[in-house]
Amino acid sequence: MRILVCVKQVPDPEAPVGIARDGLSFSVGDGDWRMNRFDEFAVEEALRMREAGASGIVEAVTVGPARAAAVLRRALAMGADEGLHILCGEEGRLPGDVAAWIAAAVRGRGDDLILTGAMSEDAMHAQTGPILAERLGLPCATAVIAARLLPDAAAGPSGQSGTGGNRLRPSFIRVERELEGGLREALELPLPAVIAVQSGINRPRYPALSHVLRARSQLLHTVSVEALPAPPRRERVVGLAWAAPSGKTLFLAGTPGQKADRLAALLGQKALL
Amino acid sequence: MPSDIAVIAETSAGQPAPVTMELIAFAKALRGDGSAPIRVFVLGAGVEQAAAGLAALPGTAVTAFEGRDLGFYSAEAWNRVLAPRIAALKPRLVCVAHDAAGADFGPALASRLGAACITSVDGFRRGPEGIVFSRPMLKGKMRMEVVPESDTTVLTLLPGSFRGGERLLPDGPAAAGEPPAPESLTAPGSPEIVPVPELPLKTRPLGPASAQAGDADLAGAEVVVAAGRGIACEANLSLLRRLAAVFSRSALGASRAVCDAGWLPHRLQIGQTGQTVAPRLYIACGISGAPQHLAGMRGSRCIVAINRDPAAAIFQTADIAVVEDLVSFVPLLVEACRRAQGGGKGAGS
Questions:
Q1: B-chain residue closest to A200, CA distance
Q2: What does the DSSP assignment read for B101-169?
Q3: Closest A-chain CA to B327
Q4: Using 50, 70 and 90 to split pLDDT, how confident is the model at A161?
Q5: Please, which residues have CB within 8 angstroms of residue B336's CB and are 6 or more apart in sequence?
Q6: Interatomic CA distance for residues B218 and B127, integer angstroms
Q7: What are the phi and psi torsion angles at A12 (to 5°)?
């Protein structure tokens, strides 16, 4: 079985981020990029599915400039088998473009399952998974908090005797989607399908040393976006800006001790103590 | 030139969902001076009553797709039914909630229609280039402004950002909500009911799965001390417990990140996919203030935020902001509160 995981390189949330001079993208220190947290959950989920089945290839794909190869290496270090780099320029990309390029690069290859993270931590569009599915004509489920391939190893062979032993190639995936207020709903999708996973679906593993060494030198497949059909431009970012303070927030000043005293006094005044 | 604005409604227990009322208010604000009714689409099984309720609102024209195969929500079913109808209508804007369903079918619908897709919107302004939509990025620290470059745009609106026709979230460049246009004086209409016969689907919606019950103590608490990823390790929860112990009727809550890490159980999660709380006092400790978390606590009477990142988005929503490392600050706060309460309660614990 072939599992494709889409991963994105985003600014490290712990590192300082600025707005580039063009006002349209981030300015980030060279070492301050990392894999989108939601995509780590997606990579982990792909690896667990591969481990639960008899065989399988997990390939990570990213759309990004040259520096984005680092997140493919991170996926390989976690245990992914292959990496595909769709190489574009430095400017920020909208999810419509990203989905169009990934679809063009993988259409017809026979991937059984495509995983994405629910959204990116930086742009937070939450569009790439569903648009990718639509472009490939595949069913899709988002906000997936639990997933199981069927038939799985627990199910016995159901009348099909294959030459590859007694593990059947999965043909469905059963998912639980997270709704509002702690509720969930269940859904079954035929493969091939796309699922966008929520954080907390699993606990992503740390890279094993053997994988880290392999990941450093492994050849990545690279495709330039110039070689793919140009995606239709349906939206345009006109600017990024820092969020303005509301003007109604009281920022306490002084030493920590003074702030603590002031806050206790304010809470006392509001009869909250 | 397309001018209609469509809203895709959601229902809950046979009634229009609260977020749908917000979408209609948002659509009317977008319409501005126009008088064309907002085209509201409802889908489901047994939705006639919800549809009638929506049709009774001034300035709406409601179509309900009614069918047994629409009984459980499914992106495949909704888009199969909606896409041809919306394609024929050619609306300028299709407004959808940015919730579990809307974020699920909305982008796929946009792609199928060849429409622009702008998600997680919480505001807009009118510029020389037309309507400019505004949305949060980087967990709310930054804002992005986007314009459509297609005749039709599917938008998803962040729930809670447009109640009652007035923007609730601060946004530097955007104008405040516009006064609603005068409503048409014609009598409220009745909905168009479109029966949907069998709808064979490739995907199979299986209905509700195990729900995570909310914590009753948290729901009833007067004071909530909430832990975010900024607490850095599970051991630091003890500091927050000491802080909660200062107040009566208090409870510990958590951001999603803390629950994902397994430091607190999911029943204590506060946010769009967890519980919504509105205590007298909400103390957010090490919480960034991403929109999904704000959705679960912005109704709190007094919000205090403690975070060592001065740019954390939570500070836009907080009433009182403390830019400090919480590991060193919280013990100081506990002592200061105990002093303010008087020596009677006993020093330290």
A1: B260
A2: THHHHHHHHHHHHT-EEEEEE-EEEEETTEEEEEEEEGGGTEEEEEEE-SS-EEEEEPTTSSGGGS--S
A3: A256
A4: very low
A5: A257, A260, A261, A263, A264
A6: 44
A7: -60, 120
Q: In what order do the strands lie in the sheet with A193-197?
A: A221-224, A82-87, A57-64, A2-6, A113-117, A193-197, A140-150, A172-178, A184-190, B204-209
Using the Cα atoms of residue B44, residue B46, residue B52 and residue B53 in order, give the sign of their dihedral. negative
For A250, the closest of B108, B319, B335 (CB atoms) is: B319
Q: Is B199 exposed, middle or buried (0-12, 13-18, 19+ CB in 10 A)?
A: middle
| A69-78 helix and A37-52 helix, angle to the nearest 10 degrees | 40
Look at strands A33-35 and A9-11 and give their pairing. Answer: antiparallel
**Tens-digit pLDDT profile for residues A178-204:** 999 889 999 999 999 999 999 999 999
Strand order in the sheet with B192-195: B116-121, B153-157, B93-97, B5-8, B38-44, B60-66, B192-195
Buried b / exposed e over B272-306, threshold 16 CB at 10 Å, is bbbbbbebbbbbbbbbbbbbbbbbbbbebebbbbb
Tens digit of each residue's pLDDT (9 = 90 or more) over B303-326: 999 999 999 999 999 999 999 999
Pick from A17, A234, A266: which is nearest to B115 by CB? A234
Peptide bond into A229 cis (omega under 30): no
Q: What is the mean pLDDT of residues A265-273?
A: 93
3-class DSSP assignment, residue B320: strand
Half-sphere exposure of B2 (CA within 13 A, CB side): 18
- Residue where the block lists tokens 């793919």: A228
Instruction: Locate A180 and state its tokens.
Output: 């509002």
Smallest CA-to-CA distance from B324 within B284, B282, B271 is with B284
Amino acid found at B18: P
Q: Residue A211 burial by CB count (10 A; 0-12/13-18/19+): exposed, middle or buried?
A: middle
With beta carbons under 8 A apart, name residues in chain B contacting A257: 332, 336
Taking the C-alpha atoms of residue B181 and residue B94, their distance in angstroms, rounded to an integer, is: 19
Cα–Cα dist A26/A20, whole Å: 5
8 Å CB contact between B8 and B102: yes
Distance CA(A9)–CA(A62), nearest Å, equals: 8
Best of B142, B222, B304, B338 to mutate (most A CBs within 10 Å, chain A): B142
How distant, in Å, are the alpha carbons of B64, B100, B288, B340 from that of B256?
36, 16, 11, 33
Cβ pair B170:A203 closer than 8 A: no
Q: Which residues between 1 and 60 in chain B have a beta carbon less than 8 angstroms from any beta carbon of chain A?
A: none
pLDDT in tens, B68-114: 999 999 999 999 999 999 999 999 999 999 999 999 999 999 999 99
Cis peptide before A151 (omega within 30 of 0): yes
B90, exposed or middle or buried, with CB in 10 Å at 0-12, 13-18, 19+?
A: middle
d(CA B208, CA A183) in angstroms, rounded, equals 8
- So what's the ipTM on this one? 0.93
